[in-house]
Specification:
Elements: H1 9-20, H2 25-36, E1 44-49, H3 68-71, E2 76-78, E3 85-87, H4 91-95, E4 101-107, H5 116-120, H6 132-139, E5 149-151, H7 180-183, H8 191-211, H9 215-218, H10 220-232, H11 234-239, H12 247-252, E6 257-260, E7 263-269, H13 273-284, E8 288-292, H14 306-330, E9 337-342, E10 346-347, E11 360-361, E12 365-371, E13 378-380, E14 395-396, H15 397-407, E15 415-417, E16 423-425, H16 434-437
Parallel strand pairs: 1-8, 1-9, 4-13, 4-14, 5-8
Antiparallel strand pairs: 2-3, 4-12, 6-7, 9-12, 10-11, 15-16
Helix pairs in contact: 8-10
Length: 438
């Protein structure tokens, strides 16, 4: 235990270094106080990505006093936090703003739909860096039977696949509950079936001896060690089984249809089930759950209308996010689970024609935080009167990921050897958002 009255030089230097990184003494003292009490469960994060770039001005950062070509058609509404306004599309989040933390002026490096920064904190120009969930899987394991990192996103083409473990090791890739992966969690119905699975696992032994230098095969070591436990564990199967949820709970997360940017007459069904599944998984002990919700790439074009699209999709997102938060609160998980909602960037403040539409805008986006033991009821950062960029001290995705690492107990000074064996820090800028930790 760290004793302030008898702090030796090494401890003093360490606290000073942490403070420089944004991990303040009050944060350390709170963690120490928690550690001295009743043991708590490891913390988890649910990471909700609004893929395509949600319009910050039309959602969390309205500019009602800006010119017409900036402000858009949606009216601002008051939130439960005095002086803070959202647009009328998000009444539910507005009502619980005093329980949320909002980042305004989040800045990204890339201005395209490459989600490197979203999942690793770093752009593609920084090389192949592991997704933060893979880092957590490697450095901060959860309950033995549960996969530490679950992605509820179906894999896409390699060019657009960003949840990769890279040099964290292939055994720290996300578990994806699709297709055969779910079938493998089916209950074992007979000893013969179990014997078949044991034989299959045994067959990997011979294969591994022949090609154990290949990283993708070495990654099977962990899976082999845990496979039988996972297959036969009712807890793991039930965590993925949405049939265990009541119809009332499922309905509370909402349903409906939304239209995309250039197809006003084509509607897609809003899928709230990943939000519910994410809650079930963190409740069961998964450390990181990622999901993508909806389509947010609203450009200009002959048949485009960003405002028509947002009118449909934002209220659906609003309901699902708020239902998730209320569900976590009702189960006493507020301090144990961090929820983060964000996109890869914002949209251009100036409305473009024909359309109307808004284009990619890397200089100012928003992110919403809830829970995890962080300080809620605040807005961090402010954009200028046109919503173009932060007035001072823009927050980066590295700062967002560093904050997540801090919540999950990851030492921000940790290094991992890259593909050449060279030690790499988890982030180039490892300062968490200090206002959330104070």
């Amino acid at each position: 235990m760290l004793s302030i009255g008898h702090m030796n030089r090494r401890e003093f230097v360490r606290v000073g270094a942490l403070g420089a990184a944004g991990v303040t003494l009050p944060w350390l003292l709170r963690q120490e106080a928690k550690a001295s009490g009743t043991p708590t469960r490891p913390k988890s994060v649910i990471y909700v990505v609004l893929d395509g770039g949600p319009s910050h001005i039309d959602m969390w950062d309205p500019k009602p006093d800006a010119p017409a070509e900036i402000r858009g058609p949606f009216n601002p509404i008051a939130t439960s936090l005095p002086g803070v306004r959202f647009t009328e599309l998000m009444p539910l989040q507005a009502r619980m703003m005093d329980r949320l933390a909002l980042l305004r002026g989040v800045q990204s490096v890339e201005n395209d739909h490459f989600l490197s920064e979203v999942y690793s904190g770093l752009p593609r120009t920084s090389g192949k860096r592991p997704a933060f969930g893979s880092v957590v899987s490697k450095l901060a394991r959860g309950q033995a039977l549960m996969p530490p990192y679950v992605s509820l996103n179906r894999p896409t083409t390699d060019q657009f696949e960003f949840e990769k473990p890279y040099y964290a090791g292939s055994d720290h890739a996300p578990f994806r509950p699709f297709g055969d992966a779910v079938d493998d969690l089916a209950p074992v119905k007979s000893l013969d079936t179990l014997s078949d699975r044991k034989a299959l696992l045994k067959s990997f032994d011979t294969l591994r001896r022949d090609i154990d230098r290949v990283d993708s095969i070495r990654g099977m070591d962990k899976f082999q060690a845990q496979a039988l436990d996972i297959i036969t564990s009712p807890k793991v199967r039930e965590a993925f089984d949405l049939s265990k949820e009541s119809p009332k709970t499922i309905a509370s997360y909402g349903s409906g249809k939304y239209t995309h940017q250039t197809a006003k007459d084509i509607y897609y069904g809003w899928n709230a089930k990943p939000f519910i599944l994410a809650r079930r998984l963190v409740e069961a002990g998964v450390r990181v759950v990622t999901l993508r919700a909806g389509e947010w790439d609203h450009h200009s074009g002959p048949t485009a209308d960003i405002f028509h699209a947002l009118k449909h999709i934002v209220p659906l997102m609003d309901r699902s996010v708020c239902a998730l938060i209320e569900d976590l609160e009702s189960r006493g998980l507020s301090d144990d689970v961090l929820v983060v909602v964000l996109g890869e960037f914002g949209r251009t403040p100036k409305i473009t024609q024909p359309g109307p539409g808004r284009e990619h805008w890397a200089d100012a986006g928003c992110a919403v935080f809830y829970g995890g033991g962080l300080k809620m009821g605040q807005v961090i950062g402010e954009t200028d009167g046109r919503g173009e960029r932060a007035k001072s001290g823009a927050t980066s995705f590295q700062n967002v990921i560093a904050t997540i690492y801090s919540v999950l107990g990851i030492d921000l000074e940790t290094t991992l050897p890259d593909f050449t064996g060279r030690p790499q820090f988890l982030l180039d800028d490892n300062k968490p958002i200090k206002e959330l930790l104070d």
